[in-house]
Amino acid sequence: MADVRLEGLKKTFGTIEILSNIDLTIDHGEFVIFVGPSGSGKSTLLRMIGGLEPISGGRLLIDNELVNDIDAADRNLGMVFQSYALYPHMTVKENLAFPLRMAKAGKAAIAAKIAKTASLLQIDHLLERKPRQLSGGQRQRVAIGRAIMREPKVFLFDEPLSNLDTDLRVQMRVQIAKLHKQLGNTMIYVTHDQVEAMTLADKIVVLKDGNIEQVGSPHDLYHNPASRFVAGFIGSPKMNFLGGKVEAAHEHGMDVRLDAGPTISVPVQPDQMLVGKPVTVGIRPDDFSSSMPGQQEISIELGVDFVEHLGSVTYIYGNAGNEALVARAPQSGWPKGASKFTLTAAPADCHLFMGNGKAVWRLHAPASWS
Ligand SMILES: Nc1ncnc2c1ncn2[C@@H]1O[C@H](COP(=O)(O)OP(=O)(O)OP(=O)(O)O)[C@@H](O)[C@H]1O
Ligand SMILES: [Mg+2]
């Protein structure tokens, strides 16, 4: 295990700055996930930690040791990337043994380690096969096994599951979670997959244009996004954004007149400077119809465009005024086939964003916070 510290880390390619002043502390045994749009710098940052990409500025410390100029091979990291190249001419067993053979480990030690790793990843029955005789998920497990063999202090994963079908992804996600629990290593993981990020991470780092937009637990990022960008990035379907104008600020929050009609009182830190200013109200699709009897509610009239049944949950797509909106349908009591529908939400579940995209701090834990 190790802690990893990034202090003002920078990356430039030629004259273009790709990452600017990245400060981040990753604790011993923590599972940290980098997310962000394509091109935001996730892989570059991971490769810099891994020693595969030179660092242009700042300091990188692993276990309190400055490693900016230490070779990748000497950083004691296990890396698994999207295109996990196994040696095609070697069997699974030989692939697993390779890192330890290079480190001049003894035969008995290697054999013991292979047995342990193979059993952990449930690939015992595949040891004599060549990579081409394996399925994608099996190959993936061998690649992870090869990374484990050296007992690295830190694992780096760059979209390791992106080539797999849905079933295998789910299986592998569970295996990676178990692996982290058993080994207790520090893990740094890049993914585009919301579910992977929300379920695996202790801490999610949201990158945007080479900067850290927000760092927090999945719960924090979901319930207290610091910006409209994070709010829209975390959660599926995406948070709804409704335009409006602040009418008043008072001790219980701010009253916002929505372009779509109603005025709602959002329980956020009041700010007189915002009165009269345009703002955006954010409501997650899942927060509609979650309101409880007796609670103050807001109602929005939705013109229904279409309905999506996903089995356990149904989403209604439509518009409110001129704005597109998606809402989770209540379990019962909504008129199927109706062209109009009144949505209700609890004000405490609403988010408020200023014109510059920054969130206005919420006064209370949201109603849906459990
Ligand atoms: N060798 C390079 N030379 C110049 N620019 C590069 C180089 N490698 C990456 N970049 C640029 O750096 C930026 C960040 O790239 P990076 O691969 O880190 O993005 P990413 O967040 O991993 O994206 P994706 O989700 O698509 O994998 C991009 O704009 C990319 O074009
Ligand atoms: Mg990438």
UniProtKB/TrEMBL annotation:
GO cellular component: ATP-binding cassette (ABC) transporter complex, substrate-binding subunit-containing; maltose transport complex
Matches recorded under CDD domains: ABC_MalK_N
Residue ranges of every copy of the ABC transporter domain listed in the record: 4-234
Alphabetized InterPro entries for the sequence: AAA+_ATPase, ABC_transporter-like_ATP-bd, ABC_transporter-like_CS, ABC_transpr_MalK-like, ABC_transpr_MalK/UgpC-like, Mo/tungstate-bd_C_term_dom, NA-bd_OB-fold, OB_MalK-like
Regions annotated as coiled coil: none
Example of a GO MF term: ATP binding
Membrane topology: Peripheral membrane protein
Domain of life (superkingdom): Bacteria
Stored Pfam families: ABC_tran, OB_MalK
Keyword annotations from UniProtKB, A to Z: ATP-binding, Cell inner membrane, Cell membrane, Membrane, Nucleotide-binding, Transport
Gene3D superfamilies attached to this UniProt entry: 2.40.50.100, Nucleic acid-binding proteins, P-loop containing nucleotide triphosphate hydrolases
Subcellular location per the Swiss-Prot or TrEMBL entry: Cell inner membrane
This protein's record includes keyword Protein biosynthesis: no
Location (main, coarse): membrane
SMART domains according to UniProt: AAA (SM00382)
Function as written in the Swiss-Prot or TrEMBL entry: Involved in beta-(1-->2)glucan export. Transmembrane domains (TMD) form a pore in the inner membrane and the ATP-binding domain (NBD) is responsible for energy generation.
Listed PANTHER family: MALTODEXTRIN IMPORT ATP-BINDING PROTEIN MSMX, MALTOSE_MALTODEXTRIN IMPORT ATP-BINDING PROTEIN MALK
Similarity remark: Belongs to the ABC transporter superfamily.
Protein name: Carbohydrate ABC transporter ATP-binding protein (CUT1 family)
Organism: Bradyrhizobium daqingense
Lineage per the UniProt record: Bacteria, Pseudomonadati, Pseudomonadota, Alphaproteobacteria, Hyphomicrobiales
